[in-house]
Amino acid sequence: MSDNNPPFDITHKMLSYVSSISEKIGNINYQHNLESKPHLRRNNKIRSIHSSLKIEANSLTLRQVRDVINGHIVIGEQKEIREVKNAYAAYGKITSINPYDLNDLNEMHGVMTKYLVDESGCFRSGEEGVFNGDECIFMAPPARLVPALMNNLFQWMQCEKDKIHPLILSSVFHYEFVFIHPYADGNGRMARLWHCVFLTKWKSVFEFIPIESQIEKFQDGYYNAIAQCHKDGKSNVFIEFILQQIDTVLSEILIQLSMNTEGLSDYVKRMLAIMEYDIPYSSNEIMDKLKLKSKETFRKNYMNPAIKSNLVKMTIPDKPNSKNQKYVKL
């Protein structure tokens, strides 16, 4: 990589996304106080961890991931539980990481893969490929080239950090990292973590923006963008894909932050306080938490007003009386 041979071309679509994202970050910082919403910040970090691990085939549900992080006993594969604990430890160090320090990268890989792989915290010694399920998208560069490729990548990032917008620079790094595939395991998790580190250094609010959850929703698009860039020899498609996902998730965060609870009854506020975001609850589960006995009281004073205010949605909206009906906090 060099100034004369950049790994991408600036496009109008990229600039449009950069402008939109910057505007939304400004709205979050100046019109809403995310610092005053610790529950939302913590929930979004848990969503990031759950989604990043789910992309790598970790089968634990969002609720199970939350329980592991909260120190509760969870029935599941010990490897998957360890992945959650490691990821939580790594994400907890985001603000102290130098994204331009290769030693920090290896150290965080050691945290992310602790007790999981033999080659933890060091570059791979064997050959690896990038897979989407059982499909091999491409074979990574030979292991003997990895140290030089990673040094070149970090040197290039250091040289370009004052010339290229952080949103684009971090996306370039994400793609190039995936292409090099420097570790025997944990490459996807590390690429997404480091992307978050870069963006957090630019705007601190990104520590609590669950970009990973948006990528997980469009996982096929994520891998397709990577594969297309391998064919093109440039990272344009991937940059545009990632910027689109960041722009979308920021729109969702703004909706969350702008929800006005003024005028809501104490009943609804109490119910919302005991519900976690993104987790489906049955009416009985919510009533147990609220220590309610009457379903009629629950529907009239709690659930119906919350649904009417678009603060809670049904999982089966076309069958409101279904015995399998559950409710999700928006």
Please sum up the structure shown.
The chain is mainly alpha-helical and 330 residues long.
Overall geometry comes to globular
**Derived structural class:** mainly alpha
Major sheet attributes: 2 strands, antiparallel
* Residues in helices, as a percent range: 55-70%
How many E-type strands? Answer: 4
Rounded to the nearest angstrom, the radius of gyration is 21 Å
Domain Fido: 100-244
Protein name: Fic family protein
Organism: Aequitasia blattaphilus
InterPro entries: Fic-like_C, Fido, Fido-like_dom_sf, Fido_containing
Describe, in plain words, how this protein is organized in 3D:
The protein is mostly helical. The protein has 14 helices and 4 strands. The strands form 2 sheets. The chain has a two-stranded antiparallel sheet. Strands 3-4 form a two-stranded antiparallel ribbon. Helix 2 (38-55) crosses helix 3 (62-69), helix 2 (38-55) crosses helix 9 and helix 9 crosses helix 11 (236-258). The protein is globular, with a radius of gyration of 21 Å. The mean pLDDT is 91.
List keywords for this structure.
single chain, 330 residues, mainly alpha, two-stranded antiparallel ribbon, two-stranded antiparallel sheet, 14 helices, 4 strands, 58% helix
Furnish the topology, listing elements before pairings:
Elements: H1 12-31, H2 38-55, H3 62-69, H4 78-91, H5 102-112, E1 129-132, E2 135-139, H6 146-160, H7 166-180, H8 187-202, H9 211-217, H10 219-232, H11 236-258, H12 266-274, H13 283-290, H14 295-308, E3 312-314, E4 327-329
Antiparallel strand pairs: 1-2, 3-4
Pfam families: Fic (PF02661), Fic-like_C (PF21247)
Domain Fido: 100-244
Protein name: Fic family protein
